[in-house]
Structures are given as C-alpha cells and as structure tokens.
Design a protein that fits this description.
2 domains; single chain; 13% strand; alpha/beta; 5-stranded parallel sheet; Arc Repressor Mutant, subunit A
C-alpha cells in the first residue's frame, strides 16, 4: 500500500485507524477527511490503494463515497469502519464496492489483525459480520455449487484466496479476459458483487477456509 485514505468525522476513530495503518503499512502516505466533501476533493486528485470509510458522515453516507471511489478506480481496496451491524448497511456497502466491513467495537489488536489480513488476501470482516454473511449464504437459494461450472469453481477458489485476475489467469493458464468473464458469471450466479462476498461463498461451498 502506497497511499491510504481514512474518512471519519470522529477524531478518536480516525487517529486509531491512522496509527494502525501506519504500523502495518509503514511507508504509505495517509490522508484524512472528516466529511464526504473533503473526501471527494482528495479522491479527485489522488489515487488511493486503501480507503477506510465510516458510514455516518456529517454530510451524507459513506456508502455513496464507496461507490464513487469504486467507479474512479476499481483497484482501490475499500473497508468500512462503522458502528452499524445491520444487514442493510452491510450489503449496501458490499454491493457499492467495499471489500471489508469492520465494527468499531473491535479491540485494537483485532483491528490490526483484520487489516493486516489484507496483505494475505483475507477480507477484513468483524467476526459477527462474518457470521451474518455465512448465515446469509446458508440459504440454499443463495449458493448452489452445481450452478457453477468446474472452471468457475476453480476461479472462485482462487479469487477468494486473494488472487488478482492476472494471478488467477496465470494459475489456470487462461487469458485475463477469460478470467474476467468467469468472475462476472460467478457473481451473477451467486448474486454477489464483491470479493468479500465471494470469499464467504467459497467458504460456504467448502472451497476455502474462513
């Protein structure tokens, strides 16, 4: 990670995330914003590898900012950091483009562990959020393994482990464009829209361990 954006109007939470991310990504530059307006000015001029965003901001919802960042640069890794644990906010965030969802009541040690997992390709998810996602995917209509082809199952297992499209293509000896088509088909068949949801789906199917 070379550049990080933290968006939160609470100074304690903002400082905590700055300290944690600086410890994990010590050479990264870190910018901060306390509102959507400030954040929008920053993302207009700067590419960020990682964005950590609160949902409740003084001038709107952080979920809107997630969608804007994802539209500007799909490579930005976006993590929500919030007090809200209800399903609506969770799935709205994931569908907008977030790859992780952390609750602010986690200990500093757990936050460090979750954010460090990004390096190894693990989506940062609070344990209670991971349980919500697993419960969602336990519904038979949400995940059915036989709906995926053999190749799609292989692709799902790899992207759930954090492999990029390029790395997945190299592992399976297929083109990046073909990999992208498989990912699109997987997302459509499983009714998901993010790597975090893909990881949970793969776990539910027994393809990877959570």
């Amino acid at each position: 990670m070379h550049s990080i954006l933290i968006v939160d109007d609470h100074s304690y939470a903002r400082n905590l995330m700055r300290d944690i991310t600086h410890k994990i990504f010590e050479h990264a530059s870190i910018d901060e914003a306390v509102s959507l307006t400030q954040a929008r000015k920053l993302i207009a001029d700067q590419h960020y590898n990682l964005a950590i965003i609160d949902i409740s901001l003084p001038d709107g919802s952080g979920v809107d900012l997630v969608a804007e960042i994802a539209a500007l640069d799909a490579q930005t890794y976006i993590v929500m950091a919030t007090i809200y644990d209800d399903e609506q906010y969770l799935f709205d965030s994931l569908r907008a483009g977030a790859s992780g969802y952390l609750l602010k009541d986690l200990s500093r040690e757990e936050l460090e562990k979750q954010i460090s997992g990004i390096i190894e390709g693990r989506p940062p998810l609070s344990p209670s959020i991971a349980r919500q996602l697993l419960a969602y995917f336990k519904k038979p209509e949400q995940v059915s393994k036989h709906n995926l082809t053999g190749r799609e199952t292989e692709v799902l297992a790899l992207i759930a482990q954090g492999f990029t499209r390029q790395e997945t293509a190299e592992q399976l000896h297929i083109s990046v464009n073909t990999t992208a088509e498989h990912i699109q088909n997987i997302y459509q068949k499983l009714n998901i829209s993010s790597r975090a949801e893909a990881a949970l789906a793969a776990c539910r199917l027994g393809l990877v361990a959570l």
